[in-house]
Amino acid sequence: MSRPGRTSHRIVDVGLAEIRVSARTLWRHVRLTTASGLTGLGEATLENADTDFGQRLHAGASQLLGCEPSQDALKPFRQSPLDLADRTVLSALDQAVLDLQGQIAGEPLCMLLGAETADIRLPLYANINRATRDRTPEAFARNAKAAAGEGYTAIKVAPFDDLSPTLCDGEDGRALIDAGLARIRAASDAAPSCELMVDCHWRLNLRTALELLSPLREIGVGWLECPLPEAEETIPPLREIRQKTNRYDMRLCGLELAGGWSDVRPFVEAGVYDVIMPDVKHAGGLDGILDLARRARSFGTSVSLHNPSGPIAHLCSAHVMAAVDSGERMEVQWNESPLFFQVTDPPPVIEAGICRPTDIPGLGASLNDAAIGMGVSA
User: Fold this and answer.
1) What is the CATH number of the domain that holds 63?
2) CA–CA separation, 319 vs 265, rounded Å?
């Protein structure tokens, strides 16, 4: 119960806000409203989510009704092993709670997380994959050139459509690999001043990954992401890939779907990746990302947040990157939809491939209810 004369910040209402961006993408958000009229936001976008995921998210948020916004209120969610969907629910609730805590304290989220200042320039790289609905090399080239024209100095592509580890060694797999290399070359030729980053989405096997390194080096790729499925048994082959990528002046990167330190520790201690890529939507909490970033740094492993998401996750990621202060670029989902700049107030500000965490208390943005209805049909 609140003390007499003290403003109550108990959570009294919860809600979801869903924005259909494309047939593939649904931005999903949780809102926590306090008795004092504050609203905290978290993004829970999850690709290929089960049909009941929205219900799970709402049920989780409802457990916070009557609670003060604090980490103690989230302890029940951390009591048992969490799968990806559970961690996505917890991550969204954690974001929303921290948004409220920042507003109550009058501090921007990055300062609440330990950043020295909110006035920090964060370099971005443009993930052009979802904007490239036409999967021809020419379309990759157009978008790479357009992103470079906006001031981005690094561009990521995910070129190996429909490939899988089991297909790699067959004739069909060879054709898919050749198509992917054509897309990569087209993007590189169109944006020669940009670092080129290639996301394999776990579609390769060891032999194919090793064979690809030579043509990727020839093209000028500097970042290779998620070549193999990530599991304990793939740690040795991933380490072998890293050793060769480093000899070719490439960095190996991954772990975008991992949780906290217990998930990433075996990979970091084995020296698998140059860069690990936690995601504010899936890691199970922002403090956990800060903890694993600190621990990974002691092994010489850097952190760059995975962030192919909507504007709420983008802004949250910017606050975390400011607190992590790794010097790495942060991902942005380039030009997937104009809604990225329309559904929040204020909208994200990206200039010449640079963003800043807002100095507004908390996350620093609210959802624009009028714009939410502008989403496209599935």
Assistant:
1) 3.30.390.10
2) 24
